[in-house]
Amino acid sequence: MKNKKLYLAGLLVVGLISIPLISSTAFSNAEKGAAPNTKQEAQKKAPKEDVTSYDKWNLVCGQPNKEKQKQCSVTQKITENKKDALAVSFTAGQDKEKKPVMVMRIFTPLGVNLLAKLGFSVDNDKKPMGMPFRSCGAGGCVVVLTVKDEFINKIKNANAINISYQGANSAKPVKIDVPMKGFAKAHEALLKNVTK
Questions:
Q1: Rounded CA separation 91/106 (Å)
Q2: Which of 67, 71, 134, 191 is deepest in the core (most CB within 10 A)?
Q3: For residue 109, how far is the Cα from the chain centroid?
Q4: Alpha carbon distance 173, 112 (integer Å)
Q5: Which residues contact 120 (CB under 8 A, 6 or more apart)?
Q6: pLDDT of 11 higher than 90
Q7: Which string of DSSP letters, residue by residue, matches 88-156?
Q8: How far is it, in rounded angstroms, from Cα 52 to Cα 189?
Q9: What's the rounded Cα separation, in Å, for the pair 183 and 196?
Q10: Rounded to whole angstroms, how far apart are CA atoms 104 and 144?
């Protein structure tokens, strides 16, 4: 009787171990079948974007789906050594009280020291702001900040905004100057697209 109980317990353990193996194989096969067959199919599903260039800045507008309102942002992407080093984006929107707001997002690659914060200044101001990272995902890490008109007016007249971040395994920060040429015109166009 004792051997029979051990035998049944052994079967139960073997059964529990084999169930995840079977189900994971079944799910992975189902997922393979659900993926788009071609790159063209994936591109058809992506929303269409209109891009207008203003010197160093781009006005990018798109409509995620028919029910949603058109969304626009002013962006600039900085590449160093053929790798994405940084992207800066300004998006106009509305707060809960339907008042206009401007949101600035700064995207960095993965591998940054999140505790060191992101350094931000205008035209190499001697007192840079330390901005905390909001989150990191597969594409990189992001800082998000709601900005006021005073700030926008200051950067419209600037030569560059200066951004720095520290790599996770480096004591020396990465410093990048983002040229502001064209930002004032791009920002004006952004506001016109939001009020349409």
A1: 11
A2: 71
A3: 10
A4: 10
A5: 106, 128, 129, 130, 131, 161, 162, 163
A6: no
A7: EEEEEEE-TTS-EEEEEEEEE-S-B-GGG-EEEEETT-SSPEEE---EEETTEEEEEEEE-HHHHHHHH
A8: 9
A9: 20
A10: 6
141-182, pLDDT tens digit by residue? 999 999 999 999 999 999 999 999 998 888 888 899 999 999
In the predicted model, what is the mean pLDDT of residues 95-103?
Answer: 78
Q: Model's pTM, two decimal places?
A: 0.71
Show the tokens assigned to 95.
């707060």
Go through the chain and tell me how many residues it has.
196
Structure tokens at 66: 């028919």
Beta bridge partners of 101: 93
SS3 state of residue 189: helix
Q: How far apart, in whole angstroms, are the C-alpha atoms of residue 11 and residue 188?
A: 71
H or E element in which residue 177 lies: strand 173-179
